[in-house]
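Appendix B. Raw example, untouched.
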Amino acid sequence: MGMKTKNSISKGMLGVFTILFMNGSLTAQTADLEIAAKITRYEVKKEQQEKFQKAVAAYVQKSILNANNIMSEAYLEQEDHNVIWLFERWKNQNELEKFEKNSKQLKDLAKTALAKPERIIEVKDLEPLTKEQWRRTSKKGEEQLTIMLFVDAKKGTEENFMKVYHKAMPEFRSEPGVVTYQLSQLKEDPSQFVTFEKFRNKEAFQYHLNFPPIQPVIDYLNSSIKKQPFQDGIHNLIEFAPLIRE
């Protein structure tokens, strides 16, 4: 009787450990399959700006040729060309890390070229775009306008913000002048978000600002973020890599 009970317990425990192990493996596999998305901000020494910009452009050109890359783009801050933004999305974190290990030129140059340490912002895309959608471009001759907006939401309003955007996103992406429109959530703080918006020209952006579905978003930004005005979080960007046009 005692032996049977002991064996039953052993088998039961083994089953529990097996389930836990399998769940752990599944979790690891799921994490491995999650798209790796990050934004890197570089503030470059003035005398190193041209050299560093070329290194970033080379990194972007190399990365978009990699089959596991979804998107890679680099921009200058319009108000300060010494600030460079690098946007990346990869099939998963492993592929991103593998690529970075084999692309040491940029990392090595950053050790001496930066005025401040780089800032890496890992994000989770909400209603993510496909690789094909990310790689849509403006046409030659169009004066593309690229805008990034950081949103620092008041605690407790995050869900409302996501609901507002969930409703508006299909409308925004269907606008004729929109090339790319993505909302992402910062992994370091779920109450912080960032939008990445590409318009074919200034007229397309003005159309967007007057587009009725944007009003609930504007209402939220005017009432539910930590610091006003929300326009302080806007960054106007100038693309320099890969700079591909239709």
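End of appendix B.
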